[in-house]
Amino acid sequence: MAVGSGVSVGSEVGKYNGQITPFVVLSCMVAATGGIIFGYDIGISGGVTSMEPFLKKFFRKVYTKMEEDTKISNYCKFDSQLLTSFTSSLYVAGLIATFFASPITRAFGRKPSILIGGVAFLAGAAFGGAAYNIYMLIIGRVLLGVGVGFANQSVPLYLSEMAPSRYRGAFNMGFQFCVGIGVLAANLLNYGIQKIEGGWGWRISLAMAAVPASILTIGALFLPETPNSLIQHNRDDPDKAKKMLQKVRGTDDVKAEFDDLVTANEISKTIKHPFKNILRQKYRPQLVMAIAIPFFQQVTGINVISFYAPILFRTIGFGESASLMSAVVTGLVGLSMTFLSLLIVDRVGRRTIFTIGGVQMFVSQMLVGAIMAAKLGDHGGLSKGYGFSVLILICTYVAGFGLSWGPLGWLIPSEIFPLEIRSAGQSITVAVGFLFTFIVAQTFLTMLCHLKSGTFFFFGGWVAVMTVFVYFFLPETKNVPIEKMDRIWKKHWFWKKYVGKEDDTNYDPVTTEIKTDI
Fold first, then answer.
1. What angle do CA 252, 257, 263 make, to 5 degrees?
2. Rounded to the nearest 5°, which phi and psi values hold at 464?
3. Across the chain, which distance is largest between two alpha carbons, in Å?
């Protein structure tokens, strides 16, 4: 039995012609800016909630508790449901929005959903920058959530469908790379504006979200639709999809890939209710992954590190300026490792990267928890040496996430669904991600207050679980054509009982390499 093995798809990739063209690179670069708006918001949220003028204006009780209550535990200074509601309200809106995005993406294409996402995020940036009370602030967050919901549902699909099969991992990881750019840009901006006299620097941080949103909105107007989407929406005129495929691949000889698209589309025509259809047994592996992957991605604990990194560093004794700079450092580390992952994912494979990143994250979280348990009490701070040790370990943890669960958490779901349930599957993935992002964000500060250093052991335990899950249950998807992805489940030791056996004699369940004719 080949436990958790990768699966070979015979010579399918060898039949696909084409190359990386400037047209597809430019299109994917524009679409991937949808990741910048998501990352920017993650970085900005944590920064502004650690700024004293922002807390004074909207969360005075938190500010008073932080500055004046000398008896309160280090772990409980920022424990406020209203403060966490500011952060997490975006994800409730995003969760709801993604289910509206799914029928739009399926009926009208990926491009309209990307455009709607950009416009909604623009409106949210305007409300946030101009906010004069908590209600206006929350309305802005909700609009940002709608924008992120539409963008996160459509952009990963767009990238996976436009990319050549051999390089799909690298192209799709452009989304997570842009998330990293957004986080880093937000952290740098937070650090730069924190000392603006008059205490209104937070307005710049919130309003500047309009910059990446404008790039995405304007760029979306000129984006081409994917060949996969065109063939769905121009069923009486398949030549339009074929011409786009030829343009994307940079060659007229696209018969093999186009035939696979036509076949996938014929199957898609028979599906009238994709959300109902995805519950069928034949789609059980995809449904499990659509739920498990985003769930695991959130219980790595990464978003609480991203949301609350400045708060976390203040908890262990760093000042406001040092806390914001520490967040910049962790953002830079995460971005660098995502770029490394982008370079190696289509050579090394998904499963290997998951394993390396999982081990790295687990060890660093256990050590952070141990240091905080031993050295950080309810009062005072860590010594300078231990404080920087925690910073280094958190950077190690972020590096592991940036290498593995960050980019792969978006890549795997976007490439495993057959065309007939692809939009619905991606919506479930995004919705589950938003749901658990909301839950984790809403509970983290309370968890930190009550579990204290045990919070890191909690997330570290989940990292161990997810690493084992990937080893046993996720087959390798490296280089597998997106419209042939159903085959990887048919030779998997566990999933074959749900989807049936594959009769392709070129199918090898042991190797993780793709056999090609070239």
1. 130
2. -65, -45
3. 73
Contact present, 483 and 264 (Cβ < 8 Å): yes
Neighbours of 70 (CB within 10 A): 6
| Amino acid letter, 499 | V
Joined together, the tokens standing for residue 63 give 């500010």
The per-residue pLDDT for range 254-278, each reduced to its tens digit, is 888 888 888 887 877 776 778 888 8
Instruction: Please report the DSSP string for 134-203 in residue order.
Output: HHHHHHHHHHHHHHHHHHHHHHHHHHHHHS-GGGHHHHHHHHHHHHHHHHHHHHHHHHHHTT-TTS-HHH
Which among 465, 464, 509 has a CA at the least distance from the CA of 488? 509
pLDDT at 353 over 60: yes
Which of 420, 419, 416 lies closest to 270, judged by CA? 420
Angle at 186 between CA 341 and CA 57, to 5 degrees: 145
Task: Give me the DSSP letters along 89-145.
Answer: HHHHHHHHHHHHHHHHHHHH-HHHHHHHHHHHHHHHHHHHHH--SHHHHHHHHHHHH
pLDDT at site 408: 95
Q: Which of 121, 149, 134, 47 is nearest to 435 (CA)?
A: 149
For the chain, helix, strand, coil in percent to 5 are 75, 0, 25
Q: What is the pLDDT of residues 274-315, one digit of tens each?
A: 888 889 899 999 999 999 999 999 899 886 676 556 656 665
Q: E strand or H helix at 402, and its extent?
A: helix 384-403
pTM metric for this prediction: 0.78
Q: Summarize pLDDT for 480-509 with one digit per residue, the tens.
A: 888 888 889 988 999 998 886 544 434 343
Quick check: 46 and 308 in contact, CB under 8 A? Answer: yes
